[in-house]
Amino acid sequence: MRGGSITKLYPIAKHSIDFLLSLIAIVFLLPLFLLIAIAIKIDSKGSVIFKQKRIGENKKEFYILKFRSMGTDAPPNMPTHLLNSHEMLITKVGHFLRKTSLDELPQLINILRGEMSIVGPRPALWNQYDLIAERDKYRVNNIRPGLTGWAQINGRDELPVNIKAKYDGEYAEKMSFSFDIKVFVKTIFKVIMSDGIREGVGYTKSRE
Q1: pLDDT of the residue at 203
Q2: Within 10 Å of residue 93's Cβ, how many Cβ atoms?
């Protein structure tokens, strides 16, 4: 089978690969999930899991899952950069979870549900109208969002909306198994370095 044919079939196979890998990851990481849940409960009151409305494939709304990193009095549907005194809202455990991106692990459940992929454009908040509109130009909203993505490893929170959408569009156009492997491997290094994470009123990009 020619490379072009394989590339066209990949989006179909991608869903099965995502399901299998996320299932294996959840089983393997279950002890870590439990430790994080216990730490969150000891550190602050409230639920362990935080839900937030996001835009999925074909602009279908869904609730993304995260380990709760902020107090229960924090607004649920507002980007961190718009919050006043955001440092006071983030819990002690939450600081560590956000710095290491461990707060994102529950999204493996979103992947199992078929709402997300391992690699894809990060799902926009339902009220990030500028980003959603920019992504329409590149047909990014037609594909399944991801736990990590091409824009994430090329600047993450530091990217202006139009540049982020262009990176997402490049991924949508070139999506392939080898491209996904490249993004995933680079993501590991970015997480280790905490590269591109910016939070607070002094910044113009949201913590996704």
Answers
A1: 35
A2: 21
Give per-residue pLDDT as tens, 149-176.
Answer: 999 899 876 789 999 999 999 999 999 9
Distances from the Cα of 29 to the Cα of 23, 32, 34, angstroms: 10, 5, 9
The pTM of the full predicted model, rounded to 2 decimals, is: 0.84
Task: State the residue for tokens 């509109």.
Answer: 133
CA gap 136, 59 in Å, rounded: 10
CA–CA gap between residue 61 and residue 124 (Å, rounded): 10
Q: What is the DSSP secondary-structure string of 113-165? A: TTS-EEESPPPPBTT-HHHHHHHHHTTGGGS--EEE-TTGGGTGGGS-HHHHH
Compare 71 and 197 and report the one with higher pLDDT: 71
